[in-house]
């Protein structure tokens, strides 16, 4: 599936949920669940690049996740550092282009540096776009875009009548990416939790009971098959009704 087949998603976005419950089931600390979750990230990224997926976006840390206990936030940050250190070479080898979307100024300076380095190091890569949503919140992203446009209008640089969905989308973190075709959430919750709110307007949603650390290659491929069988109408009538 190296070229884009009609019923394959161009962009899969995943809300990786259930690390804590995975650990609890095993009487392990929550941090152990996050560590296992990092293993799932690794496997899914490998599977996605192997199948030729063009865009994969993973929700790694939400703007609301700062409210978790300090020790858990610290453990998550340590994991992100470890991931950047251990996996960047392989990502470069796999021709992956890395992007991080979110409010990066709130994260520790060394992580900001890692983010910048990873983006710079992969900027010329032409394979899969791997995007981590990190300190990301969809409402905040939309409010930021609205503020920028309002400022431009107030300063006379923009005619409000020219504001279209496309112009608005160009102000979002994801301006370089197509909208997600498929949004997956693991662990049985059926919410978007502030993830890619604008961008998911027409996305197919797939809610799975699998806990994130148990999600791997087979689960990704199955999710893509599930997507391929759906009839996407984008507000029009079904393709069968037209045929
Ligand atoms: C949700 O599980 C997951 C997160 C808050 C963060 C996702 C983090 C990872 C997958 C770990 C490492 C990632 C990278 C990129 C190295 P939860 O804690 O909300 O689970 P629960 O709902 O069962 O408590």
Give a structural overview.
43% of the residues lie in helices and 14% in strands. With 243 residues, it is an alpha/beta fold. The protein has one domain (11-142, 178-229): Decaprenyl diphosphate synthase-like (Undecaprenyl pyrophosphate synthetase, 3-Layer(aba) Sandwich), CATH 3.40.1180. The chain has a six-stranded parallel β-sheet with strand order 3-4-2-1-5-6, with helices on both faces. It binds farnesyl diphosphate (FPP).
Topology readout:
Blueprint: E1 11-15, H1 19-25, H2 30-51, E2 55-62, H3 70-93, E3 97-101, H4 109-121, E4 129-136, H5 138-154, H6 165-169, E5 182-185, E6 204-207, H7 217-228, H8 239-242
Parallel strand pairs: 1-2, 1-5, 2-4, 3-4, 5-6
The protein binds farnesyl diphosphate (FPP).
Residues 16-21, 34, 37-38, 41, 60-61, 65, 79-80, 83, 132, 187, 212 line the site of farnesyl diphosphate (FPP).
């Amino acid at each position: 599936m190296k070229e884009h087949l009609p019923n394959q998603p161009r962009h899969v976005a995943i809300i990786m949920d259930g690390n804590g419950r995975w650990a609890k089931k095993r009487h392990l600390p929550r941090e152990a669940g996050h560590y296992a979750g990092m293993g799932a990230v690794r496997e899914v990224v490998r599977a996605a690049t192997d199948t030729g997926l063009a865009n994969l976006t993973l929700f790694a840390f939400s703007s609301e996740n700062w409210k978790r206990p300090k020790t858990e936030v610290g453990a998550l940050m340590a994991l992100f550092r470890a991931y950047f250190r251990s996996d960047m070479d392989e990502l470069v080898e796999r021709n992956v282009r890395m992007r991080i979307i979110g409010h990066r100024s709130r994260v520790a300076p060394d992580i900001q540096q890692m983010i910048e380095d990873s983006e710079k190091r992969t900027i010329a890569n032409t394979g899969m776009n791997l995007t981590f949503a990190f300190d990301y919140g969809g409402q905040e992203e939309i409010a930021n875009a609205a503020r920028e446009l309002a400022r431009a209008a107030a300063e006379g640089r923009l005619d409000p009548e020219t504001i279209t969905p496309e112009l608005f989308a160009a102000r979002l973190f994801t301006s370089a990416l197509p909208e997600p075709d498929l949004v997956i959430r693991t662990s049985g919750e059926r919410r978007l939790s502030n993830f890619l709110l604008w961008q998911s307007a027409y996305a197919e949603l797939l809610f799975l009971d699998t806990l994130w650390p148990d999600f791997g290659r087979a689960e990704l491929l199955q999710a893509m098959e599930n997507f391929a069988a759906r009839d996407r109408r984008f507000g029009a009538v079904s393709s069968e009704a037209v045929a």
